[in-house]
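R.M. (postdoc): so does anyone remember the format we settled on? I'll just put the structure tokens first.
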């Protein structure tokens, strides 16, 4: 189950506004939805995530022994209503409930006009996510539309902090942008502690201001890039950085990377999605994002299954790092 969404029978813990996601699972609502609807349709309500002390037993005496400063996180399964363990955390860990997660984003709804787009649970309920679409798009060069999103991620097993991420989506080919804009932060996190949860609403408001700063920097950089000509020869230098090849690589690896380089160059030179922006630094960056999101060869196979792995790589930051590298190389 490569999508890693939580499922129970034919039900999936995922809801989306207006259109199916690539995995074709979950509930699709006709328009953006509320926090309450996110809880209902993504099966995120009434988990009551809590901590319980951990114990072990001595084989010889069967005596129960407490494990100092270690706790199990437990939830009530949304379908079976049976308690189940999600992870092991320390004494300072404070759960952030799914309802709190949604309410934090509701703050941004009220203050910015943003709207809920997706919500769901992955990895057996250990992690949850919600995304919101900002009300205004950005037009780069008068033709390339960028839609900004705020994504909030949470974990119930101590695997990561509560995080806000800002991600602009290029509508023409639905590429997830992950550019590293100088002096503009695109991510921040809050620890699962009492002090962290107390200040998280204020930080959610900060995220809103950070979003506009990030998008302003992104828009300015993109406009410069769309005015900058880029030759195939210069783009090849970016390709070499994105797809490096060690001198001592085997013939198999050399051939494989060579084929991937040609694929990426082909997107830059001939892709229909580059028609309006071809030959610019902006098209070079878009070719990289399109390649990583839709065409990248994974484990030697360029198949539909590979697209699933590419999506997972984007989520864990591997693709994000490569996109950021390309963006830095192509900026004026």
């Amino acid at each position: 189950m490569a999508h890693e969404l939580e499922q129970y029978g034919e039900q999936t813990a995922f809801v989306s506004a207006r259109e199916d996601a690539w995995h074709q699972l979950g509930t699709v609502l006709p328009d953006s939805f509320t926090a309450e609807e996110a809880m209902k349709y993504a099966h995120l309500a009434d988990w009551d995530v809590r901590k319980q002390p951990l114990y072990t037993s001595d084989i010889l005496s069967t005596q129960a022994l407490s494990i100092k400063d270690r706790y199990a996180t437990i939830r009530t399964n949304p379908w079976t209503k049976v308690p189940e363990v999600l992870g092991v955390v320390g004494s300072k860990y404070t759960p952030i409930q799914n309802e709190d997660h949604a309410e934090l984003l509701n703050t941004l709804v009220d203050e910015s006009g943003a709207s809920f787009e997706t919500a769901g649970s992955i990895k057996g309920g250990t992690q949850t996510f919600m995304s919101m679409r900002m009300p205004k798009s950005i037009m780069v060069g008068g033709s390339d539309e960028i839609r900004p999103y705020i994504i909030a991620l949470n974990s119930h097993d101590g695997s990561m902090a509560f995080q806000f991420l800002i991600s602009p989506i290029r509508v023409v080919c639905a590429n997830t942008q992950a550019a590293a804009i100088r002096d503009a932060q695109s991510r921040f996190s809050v620890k699962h502690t009492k002090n962290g949860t107390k200040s998280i609403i204020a930080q959610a408001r900060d995220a809103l201001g950070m979003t506009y700063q990030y998008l302003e920097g992104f828009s300015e950089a993109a406009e410069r890039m769309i005015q900058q000509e880029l030759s195939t020869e210069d783009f090849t230098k970016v390709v070499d950085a994105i797809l490096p090849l060690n001198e001592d690589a085997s013939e198999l690896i050399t051939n494989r990377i060579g084929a991937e380089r040609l694929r990426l160059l082909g997107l830059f030179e001939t892709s229909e999605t580059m028609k309006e922006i071809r030959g610019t630094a902006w098209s070079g960056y878009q070719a990289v994002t399109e390649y990583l999101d839709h065409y990248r060869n994974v484990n030697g196979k360029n198949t539909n299954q590979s697209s699933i792995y590419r999506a997972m790589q984007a989520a864990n930051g591997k693709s994000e790092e490569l996109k950021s590298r390309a963006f830095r190389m192509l900026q004026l």
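R.M.: ...and that's the designed sequence above, right after the tokens. Also worth knowing: The chain is about 40% helix and 25% strand. The first strand starts at residue 7 and ends at 8.
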